[in-house]
Design a protein that fits this description.
Layout lengths: L21 H13 L5 E3 L2 H8 L7 H14 L3 E6 L2 E6 L2 H4 L33 H7 L12 H4 L19 H15 L4 H16 L5 H10 L5 H14 L6 H13 L3
Antiparallel strand pairs: 1-3, 2-3
């Protein structure tokens, strides 16, 4: 059920929010106010109009258009359907809203994002394909530095790691959260998977393939640091290392910095 909600001060400076016209920002806040304790709410235009704009004369088509524009502009808000009914949910809800006595949602759960690990070649979820295992088996010390087969795999060739980090490049907090969550998810599969996650992240954030000494530092780091330290370090390093003469040295420095106790 709806209850009092907290609006983070960063809401007003968020790069995605500023692209919305004022009435849609108000609409967004109304959606937050009427979401339940698990971040879900009905998305039917008639319902949204009755709850958020009860004193205004917006048509249902206008409400639907504003709703869809908000969803399109903000990847943290998702629209889904269950049994012919439309619903909305906030992906980062628990990060911002912490009710003292949360009530279970009465609305259907949003569909879970499934990893697309199974390919036509019969890849088993949680296991690298045989051709990738052969590549992954060669670590940097077994070949020229940073030139192992694993280091040469490009985006799209790596099986299993499907995450897209590009939608959060303008929000350091969300980007760090997503990378931490992704690393935590893949951690049980071993360091090779963590290396692939960070390779994908690095290439999407910097536009450059991870290779050479940066790859070597990454290969060592995944076995040494926990996901939260890796995430904070790589978000910072990916942002500032392109301007450094020695990106690997800078990355190592940032890793050590983020690993220190506060």
């Amino acid at each position: 059920m709806p209850r009092r909600r907290m609006i983070d001060p960063d809401f007003w400076s968020d790069s995605r929010i500023k692209k919305l016209p004022p009435v849609e920002r108000l609409f967004f806040l109304g959606m937050i106010s009427h979401a339940d304790d698990e971040g879900r709410l009905q998305a039917d235009p008639a319902y949204l109009r009755s709850k958020i704009f009860p004193y205004d004369d917006f048509s249902l088509d206008e409400i639907r258009e504003m709703r869809d524009h908000i969803v399109e502009a903000n990847p943290n808000v998702k629209l889904y359907e269950n049994s012919g009914e439309e619903y909305l949910y906030f992906r980062k809800w628990s990060r911002y809203q912490k009710p003292s006595h949360p009530q279970p949602s009465k609305l259907p759960k949003p569909p879970q994002l499934q990893e697309e690990l199974q390919s036509d070649s019969g890849t088993v979820p949680g296991k690298l394909p045989e051709r990738e295992q052969n590549r992954a088996g060669m670590i940097p010390s077994q070949s020229r530095l940073g030139q192992s087969s694993l280091g040469k795999v490009r985006i799209g060739q790596v099986s299993g790691v499907q995450e897209d980090f590009t939608e959060f490049l303008n929000s350091e907090g969300d980007l760090t959260d997503l990378l931490t969550t992704t690393l935590t998810k893949y951690r049980p599969r071993g360091p090779l998977w963590l290396t692939e996650v960070l390779k994908r992240f690095w290439e999407q954030c910097t536009g450059k393939e991870m290779s050479g000494t940066v790859f070597q530092v990454t290969h060592e780091a995944v076995a040494r640091y926990p996901p939260d330290v890796l995430a904070r370090a790589y978000v910072k390093a990916a942002r500032y290392s392109p301007g450094k003469t020695n990106p690997a040295k800078y990355l190592r420095k940032v890793l050590e910095e983020k690993a220190r106790p506060p």
